[in-house]
């Protein structure tokens, strides 16, 4: 039997498949019965292989989404993720848009780059570039047209089934170009958009992150370390570790702008393990004003020997009152909390009533904001500067909101950050209750 060495999978970090592997793939998949043409068969074969070779953070979210926003550090494999997704769509005839900061970026990175679309396809569902029309054409009949974010009006008129937007934070006219692109996503039953970018604290990105239907995933450079030069990470960490630049460019976190209370260097050094026992544990809740609007902030924190430990961020969006109350109560049960601390500015006693209906295992304490968010957060930010707060896990979305407090450009309500401020204020800044020891 003649074997095919198969397509070259760029930046996969995996051992190439042997001829025996390819033979077994064909025997197991039996794809010929599912597709009408040989080109569709090869495209499907490549899609199966990418599922094997892509790292977890390079795969689309399993939850329903209209827009997948992948925030990643330099070299995290964002191009591989975007090109892989577009190539999967090209297994069947469709029209797609490729948008980058400039047309040069689209051609050299998204299409011709080592992890780009031409390297991704190769022998499986061959693709050709038509320079005069600025488009890629696959053997299946799928098409992808190249556009520059420098010219939003070029997106007026064309229509698409799907789109890939790369390095969104480097777009010169980000909000305008994104709007024009979305107006063109009107073909098929489920048009989707993938956005891959190293984050910057731009208003356009913050607005995008807060939109309904946007599923955000994150990956630091270290997640793709197996495909990078051995000394790359070590050198950059030695030079920039713990700085705002490292948080943005290596960890893929949206860092604070001028005026932010919480510094990247403080958050970078606050990570650690929880103690075996706590004096006290609370669950803080920042209820949403409506089910369709802001998220419900739910943060769990404990105190031990003069330090606060952030244990979990269970913030969720789009929940009914019963839904977010059940979420908060479940966190209280899981961590054997002493109290549910809930902000009551929006709902008053109704907040207590909704939480009580979910049968909490601990008392409910309502708190009310008498000063602005920045004033409430300042004492908590001082705790971080003093090294008195430990994050017992990775909480990138929470840290992004903390670093956005005070800059006036967050783009959405900082529900996670508000909940954390209430939790640490209760534990460290005057919340009164006699301590007790307990194993968690």
UniProtKB/TrEMBL annotation:
<feature type="domain" description="Terminase large subunit gp17-like C-terminal">
    <location>
        <begin position="284"/>
        <end position="426"/>
    </location>
</feature>
<dbReference type="Pfam" id="PF03237">
    <property type="entry name" value="Terminase_6N"/>
</dbReference>
<dbReference type="InterPro" id="IPR035421">
    <property type="entry name" value="Terminase_6C"/>
</dbReference>
<keyword id="KW-1188">Viral release from host cell</keyword>
<protein>
    <submittedName>
        <fullName>DNA-packaging protein</fullName>
    </submittedName>
</protein>
<dbReference type="Pfam" id="PF17289">
    <property type="entry name" value="Terminase_6C"/>
</dbReference>
<dbReference type="InterPro" id="IPR027417">
    <property type="entry name" value="P-loop_NTPase"/>
</dbReference>
């Amino acid at each position: 039997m003649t074997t095919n060495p198969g397509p070259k999978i760029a930046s996969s970090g995996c051992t190439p498949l042997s001829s025996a592997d390819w033979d077994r793939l064909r025997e197991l998949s039996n794809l010929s019965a599912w597709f009408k043409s040989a080109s569709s068969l090869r495209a499907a074969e490549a899609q199966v292989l990418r599922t094997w070779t892509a790292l977890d953070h390079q795969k689309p979210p399993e939850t329903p989404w209209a827009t997948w926003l992948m925030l990643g550090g330099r070299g995290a494999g964002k191009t591989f993720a975007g090109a892989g997704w577009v190539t999967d769509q090209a297994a069947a005839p469709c029209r797609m848009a490729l948008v980058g900061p400039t047309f040069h970026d689209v051609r050299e990175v998204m299409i011709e780059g080592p992890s780009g679309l031409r390297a991704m396809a190769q022998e499986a569902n061959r693709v050709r570039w038509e320079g005069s029309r600025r488009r890629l054409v696959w053997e299946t009949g799928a098409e992808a047209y190249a556009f520059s974010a420098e010219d939003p009006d070029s997106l007026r008129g064309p229509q698409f089934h799907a789109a890939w937007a790369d390095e969104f934070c480097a777009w010169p006219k980000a909000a305008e170009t994104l709007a024009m692109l979305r107006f063109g996503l009107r073909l098929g039953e489920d048009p989707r958009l993938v956005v891959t970018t190293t984050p910057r604290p731009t208003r356009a990105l913050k607005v995008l992150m807060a939109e309904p239907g946007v599923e955000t995933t994150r990956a630091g450079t270290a997640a793709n370390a197996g495909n990078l030069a051995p000394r790359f990470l070590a050198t950059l960490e030695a030079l920039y570790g713990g700085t705002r630049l490292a948080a943005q460019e290596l960890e893929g976190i949206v860092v604070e702008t001028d005026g932010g209370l919480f510094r990247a260097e403080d958050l970078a050094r606050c990570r650690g393990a929880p103690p075996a026992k706590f004096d006290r544990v609370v669950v803080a809740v920042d209820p949403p004003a409506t089910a369709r609007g802001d998220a419900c902030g739910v943060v769990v924190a404990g105190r031990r020997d003069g330090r606060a430990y952030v244990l979990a961020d269970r913030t969720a969006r789009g929940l009914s009152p019963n839904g977010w109350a059940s979420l908060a109560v479940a966190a209280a049960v899981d961590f054997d909390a002493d109290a549910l601390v809930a902000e009551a500015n929006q709902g008053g006693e109704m907040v207590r009533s909704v939480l009580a209906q979910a049968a909490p295992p601990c008392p409910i304490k309502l708190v009310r904001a008498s000063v602005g968010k920045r004033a409430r957060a300042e004492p908590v930010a001082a705790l971080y500067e003093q090294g008195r707060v430990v994050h017992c896990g990775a909480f990138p979305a929470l840290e992004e909101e903390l670093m956005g407090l005070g800059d006036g450009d967050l783009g959405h309500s900082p529900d996670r950050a508000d909940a954390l401020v209430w939790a640490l204020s209760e534990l460290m800044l005057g919340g009164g209750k006699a301590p007790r020891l307990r194993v968690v």
